[in-house]
Design goal:
TIM Barrel, mainly alpha, 48% helix, 3 strands, three-stranded parallel sheet
Length: 123
């Protein structure tokens, strides 16, 4: 199905692969998806370590390899699984720099809204 979507020129966004148990640690598969045009989004809670060290370490590996296009909230409400975007921005900014954070939190999401090319974010 993914091949058909990509063949139509669509750019699917894979939301929080870092929290899909069979994918955790499988950098090769995520890289293959990204190389074939799938956009990768991780959650702010994962960046902050809210889903455990296994998920956190995988997210860091994805970021280090330039395999993350966006960081989003995955917020479910203002009380449960909240936004945490400012805290996640601060973590990314401190670890990778402001330009890196800007691309993940602002530039790439804006490109999606305007059907523009989304860039790979590298250190």
């Amino acid at each position: 199905m993914l091949s058909r979507i990509l063949a139509k020129g669509k750019k699917p966004i894979f939301a929080h692969p870092e929290r899909v148990n069979p994918l955790i640690g499988n950098i090769t598969l995520i890289e293959r998806l990204a190389d074939n045009g799938v956009l990768i989004q991780v959650n702010s809670g994962s960046v902050l370590g809210r889903f455990g060290s296994k998920v956190y370490n995988f997210v860091i590996s994805l970021l280090d390899q330039g395999l993350v296009h966006f960081i989003a909230s995955d917020a479910h409400s203002s009380h449960q699984r909240t936004f945490n975007l400012v805290r996640a921005w601060n973590v990314i900014n401190e670890s990778y720099g402001e330009d890196f954070a800007e691309k993940l939190f602002y530039t790439n999401p804006k490109h999606v809204l305007f059907s523009e090319q989304v860039e790979r974010v590298m250190k």
